[in-house]
Specification:
With 149 residues, this protein is mainly alpha-helical. It has a domain of 102 residues. It is built from 5 helices and no strands. The longest helix is centred in the first third of the chain and has 64 residues. The C terminus is likely disordered. Keywords: Membrane, Transmembrane, Transmembrane helix.
Length: 149
């Protein structure tokens, strides 16, 4: 009888050890997958934010030197903001919309001379993406996933 108990205890030990090993491996794999998803999400956001900054800067430069009533140039910028509405926090979207409004306002003003552009740059008025950059940096630093508040 003692031999059976010893054998059962040995089998129970093996089963518990195997289960523990399986659980540890599964939890490690799961955390690695989640980390990869977070990294991919952050890279996607960084790319979207970078594309917005590049397009907004290009359009602002164009707006300073050209007065237009045509909105066709703004289509890509609007599309980028729409994508941000899907995955970004409210502060990022608000800052992007503010930057977009600033570009539209600039298109509606008369063309600026080089000396006026220099004065704008010196006064800091051309830093229209400052709030956007700070909102993006804060969002990326928190590692927030796509749950929008």
């Amino acid at each position: 009888m003692d031999a059976y108990i010893s054998a059962l205890m040995g089998l129970a030990g093996i089963a518990i050890g195997s289960l523990t090993s399986f659980a540890t491996t599964w939890m490690t794999h799961r955390s690695q997958v989640k980390e990869k998803q977070r990294e991919a999400e952050a890279a996607k956001r960084e790319k979207l934010f970078s594309d917005f900054i590049a397009e907004a800067t290009r359009l602002y430069g164009d707006a300073i030197s050209h007065q237009k009533d045509d909105v066709s140039d703004l289509v890509l910028l609007y599309a980028l903001v729409a994508q941000m509405r899907l995955i970004s926090s409210r502060p990022v979207v608000d800052a992007a919309e503010l930057a977009m409004a600033r570009i539209v306002e600039t298109y509606l003003t008369p063309n600026r001379s080089l000396s006026e552009i220099r004065d704008l740059a010196r006064s800091g008025a051309m830093n229209f993406l400052l709030d956007f950059g700070e909102a993006c940096r804060a969002e990326l630093a928190t590692g927030r996933l796509s749950t929008r508040r």
